[in-house]
Write a structure and sequence with these properties.
The complex is a heterodimer.
Chain A: H1 2-17, E1 29-35, H2 42-61, E2 70-76, H3 81-93, E3 99-101, H4 106-119, E4 122-125, H5 132-136, E5 142-144, H6 149-163, E6 169-173, H7 178-194, E7 199-204, H8 214-223, E8 227-229, H9 234-246, H10 249-252, E9 254-257, H11 264-267, E10 276-278, H12 294-307, H13 313-335, H14 343-349, E11 354-355, E12 362-364, E13 370-371, E14 374-380, E15 389-396, H15 398-401, H16 409-414, E16 426-429
Parallel strand pairs in A: 1-2, 1-3, 3-4, 4-5, 6-7, 6-8, 8-9, 9-10
Antiparallel strand pairs in A: 10-14, 11-12, 12-13, 14-15, 15-16
Helix pairs in contact in A: 2-13, 3-4, 6-7, 13-14
Chain B: H1 3-34, H2 41-61, H3 69-91, H4 101-123, H5 132-137, E1 139-142, E2 145-148, H6 149-172, H7 174-184, H8 186-191, H9 196-218, H10 228-243, H11 248-268, H12 276-287
Helix pairs in contact in B: 1-6, 1-9, 1-10, 1-11, 2-3, 2-4, 2-9, 2-10, 3-9, 6-7, 7-9, 10-11, 10-12
The chains are: A alpha/beta, B mainly alpha.
Amino acid sequence: MKTWRAAIAALATASLFGTAAAAEKPSELRVGVTTFLSGPASVFGEPARVGAEMMVREINERGGIGGVPVRLIFVDEGAGGEHVVSEFRRLVEQENVDVMFASISSGNCNAVAPLAEDLGVLNFMWDCGTQRIFEEDDYRYVFRTQAHATPEMLATLLYLLKAKPDFQTIAVVNQDYAWGRDSWDIFSTALRALKPDVRVVAELFPRFGAPDYSTEVTRLAALRPDVILSTSWGGDLDTFIRQAAQRGLLQQSTFVLPLAESSLERLGRSLPPGHIIGARGDHYFLHPEFRDDPDFQGFMEAFRAETGAYPIYPVFHMSQAIAALEAAYLRAIEANGGAWPERSQVVDAMAGLTFQGLGRPVTIREDNQGLEAQLIGMTIHVDEFPFAVLDDMVIYDPRDITTPVGMNSIEWLRSLTPDFVDSVRIDRFSHAQ
Amino acid sequence: MTPQLALLATLDGIAYAALVFMVAVGLTMIFGVMRILNVAHGSFYAIGAYSAASIVLGLTAAGMNPWLVFPGLLLAAVGVGAVLGTLIERLLLTRIYTKEPVLQLLVTFAVFMILEDVQRLVWGVRPYFAAEPVYLLGNVQVVGIFYTAYQLILLPTVALLVLVGLRLFLRRTLSGRLIVAVTEDREMATALGINAGRVFLLTFVLGSTLAALGGALASPTTSLVPGIGADMIVLSFAVVAIAGLGQVEGAAIAALMIGLGRSFAVYVMPELEVVVPYLVMVIVLLIRPEGLFGVVERRRI
């Protein structure tokens, strides 16, 4: 045991003080991935796992990254925060993983980011919504390969303000936990700045995992707000939308659903046309810029063949993390004159890195935050699909809607003025085009 | 709060209470007779729900007469309760009736965990939704607001039938009276020649079927996801604690208190909605530690 610890210590010292080009090519590149494999959030975690395995299989079939095959080791976030933290530590210290992808849950992201920094392991926050991490601390080892809650909520609001400029009242129905509360904080702050005359008529936060929204639906039906926002997801969102649809609420109010891209296929035709849908990035199996691309199409169909459903946004987020992994290693290898890089060289290679998963390219900013485009659309029903798809799509340039470096999201949103709405760079697409 | 809103809140509360009651009454019956706090009760709810959804989806896909989904829901509940209930009671619970309560709790908890994984194996993690029965019954309008007839009429009616049926069964039939006798005094009942083993089996299957029925009737209105069983068991424990262990009518009152408390909270103070069941429980237990209808147990020597 002692000698083994000494060996680890020696290894660690070697990597700290080791000279360039000293690293030997390993037999495999080990990546630890935390994702939900149990509990309600496994609706995100499972597709992401399947997607990761498919993408890594493809990489390994063409010889791996720089000739080294990639091996994924999964950790179940559903087992709780303590489990994730101890597994994270175990993977780094005992399995000697090269890179960690952690995590989905904001609570876990908050816990593992400082841990990654302590352990000195490269960590990609691959599906992490909380905007706080880089706004509150500086990190060397932690990077976010996607956007965060602020651009996600802001893009949705900008779309709503263009699509339905005259709305007067809004109600919110979010899940009662960190994401539900924080996303409403961001959305409502931006709303007050960009359209101060709107009245918030109800703020409802039903229990996470609530099986029944009848009372909420009744109250909303009595209030008749112009717009109903819900950042809920998974089974909760499905239940809420179906119960609302069963009782005519979707005919009465415009729904704004920033995460509903991940529910479209399951909801089938019960989600009627004319509601606003987001995807936590430019993530859509019919992405207007790539849907005719054979690789993109091939992956969508292969994924559907494997799981029975089209990929949803966590699969796209995973593709970005894996693209970042490959791009960083290739860049580090090149900088190292073609030899396998030290781990610290890979971390250095992350600065300003641009990589492209199954969407527009993402660039890492100087505060380690990824700049990821946002796609928002309006539901329509078409003959080819038995569920609602997106029309009147808008893709937002991330540079305009991501909190500037060094600023706090809430303060930045407060400083916006109504003319901001027309100042952002966008591209428009329709389903038919 | 206007009278109209109060009426709406009451209707929502009753519909919700109906489902909670069906699950909780099974739990409280099992405890009353067997003195086992059955954590696996939540699994019966979940598996009943998943089975019902599978049957409904299967019937719809096969293009059968859509009204067959209602017998389908019932079939799912009875099937799950009878088959799984008998297996668990005969193979497992009969071995631990004389053991420590803590051990019994652990064993049923283990069964619950195993069954959670079984659900994931069989049905996966994607949310299931089988809303056909709700669409069939259509909507009704109350003071300008649409309700589904399923939630407004069918669920409370079934719950009422269960309540009345259980009352009649326990008071008027021989098997029912045997159950009451064992609940009241197991030692004396067995001394008089009542076959406690058969009464236990009957109670467990009946209680489990009620949980599965709650799940089956919930399935058309809600998404079935991993973890629904755990949520329901926690809520049922609250109902049982409020009512007093083993109290059938008490469970109905407690479920109504939770249902109405919750729906009024959504109108008056939405922040409280999440904690209503536990708030009701704490208040009741502070005043009556044995529950609303519970009786203080006399120590037998």
